Amino acid sequence: MNVTIRKIGNSEGVIIPKEVLQRLGLSSGDSLELREIEGNIQLVPESADLAEQMRAARIGMEKYRVALRELAK
């Protein structure tokens, strides 16, 4: 299946056909991880565990922002 890189605002992207999204159980708003492996691009659905861990890390970093800044000195 061929897709074309298109201008989307100030960025560029590809449109994933609806049939492919349905087969993979994906929909608008889902997060994908982009991997570059040996000159190829892979889009992999982000695991829910990783997304939850990242959300928790962001909350912790915001809560302890001052302490983390001091530790970084």
TrEMBL record:
Family annotation (SMART domains): SpoVT_AbrB
GO molecular function, one term: DNA binding
Keywords assigned by UniProt, alphabetized: DNA-binding
UniProt xrefs under Pfam families: MazE_antitoxin
DNA-binding is among the record's keywords: yes
Residue ranges annotated for the SpoVT-AbrB domain, each copy included: 3-48
Database matches in SUPFAM superfamilies: AbrB/MazE/MraZ-like (SSF89447)
NCBIfam families linked to this entry: doc_partner, lp_hng_hel_AbrB
Protein name in the entry: AbrB/MazE/SpoVT family DNA-binding domain-containing protein
Species whose genome carries this gene: Rhizobium ruizarguesonis
